[in-house]
């Protein structure tokens, strides 16, 4: 069957040419500065995990888009076990994060930063294509942050 052959060819190409993929899963889509609630996101890799993997994240833009380190910060979730971070410490992250060797997932938290605006803003996250991996599915998600002024 020709369709089956095409499917197998596509799978083989994806599996061998892009053996490692990274997807993004939103677990909690609201970060509220009033009560300390955080948005939660997981990066999930498929394929080999015998080396650390640097993953580039993109953040959306537009009138309601939140800005990294202005409206929110991205931190390693407690269960992430990031290298060099002692228990109880918070690892503040930027637009490049590292999935440690031997780990298939990296848990991240989106923390709303205090501000004076009363409007909710939107964190648009996406896994950008990078060296050593292809984007998985889903590769993007959104977290609403709420941080009213006093």
Describe this structure in words.
There is one protein chain. The chain is globular, with a radius of gyration of 17 Å. It has one domain (20-146): CalX-beta domain (Immunoglobulin-like), CATH 2.60.40.2030. The chain is mainly β and 150 residues long. It contains 1 helix and 11 strands; from the N terminus they run H-E-E-E-E-E-E-E-E-E-E-E. The strands form 2 sheets. The protein has a 6-stranded mixed β-sheet with strand order 6-5-8-3-1-10, with no helix packed on it. The chain has a 5-stranded mixed β-sheet with strand order 2-11-9-4-7, with no helix packed on it. The chain has one helix at residues 2-17; strands at 21-28, 30-32, 39-46, 53-59, 72-76, 92-93, 96-99, 105-112, 121-128, 134-135, 140-146. It starts with a helix and ends with a strand. The mean pLDDT is 80.
Question: How would you concisely characterize the structure shown here?
Answer:
The chain is mainly β and 150 residues long. The chain has one helix at 2-17; strands at 21-28, 30-32, 39-46, 53-59, 72-76, 92-93, 96-99, 105-112, 121-128, 134-135, 140-146. It starts with a helix and ends with a strand.
What labels would you give this structure?
11% helix; 6-stranded mixed sheet; mainly beta; 150 residues
What is the CATH architecture descriptor?
Sandwich
- Write down the CATH topology: Immunoglobulin-like
Number of helices: 1
Query: What name goes with the CATH superfamily?
Result: CalX-beta domain
H and E string? HEEEEEEEEEEE
Give the helix level as a range of percent: 10-25%
Largest sheet: 6 strands, mixed
Question: Distance between termini?
Answer: 66 Å
Share in β-strands: 35-45%
Q: What structural category arises from helix and sheet content?
A: mainly beta
CATH class: Mainly Beta
């Amino acid at each position: 069957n020709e369709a089956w052959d095409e499917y197998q060819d596509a799978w083989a190409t994806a599996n061998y040419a892009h053996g490692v993929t990274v997807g993004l899963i939103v677990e909690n889509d609201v970060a509220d500065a009033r009560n300390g609630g955080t948005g939660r996101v997981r990066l999930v890799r498929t394929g080999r995990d015998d080396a650390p993997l640097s993953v580039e994240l993109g953040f959306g833009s537009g009138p309601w888009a939140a800005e990294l380190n202005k409206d929110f910060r991205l931190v390693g979730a407690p269960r992430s076990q990031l290298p060099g971070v002692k228990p109880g410490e918070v690892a503040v992250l930027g637009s490049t994060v590292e999935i440690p060797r031997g780990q298939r997932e990296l848990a991240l938290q989106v923390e709303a930063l205090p501000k004076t605006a009363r409007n909710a803003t939107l964190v648009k996250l996406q896994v950008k294509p990078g060296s050593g991996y292809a984007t998985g599915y889903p590769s993007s998600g959104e977290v609403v942050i709420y941080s009213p002024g006093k």
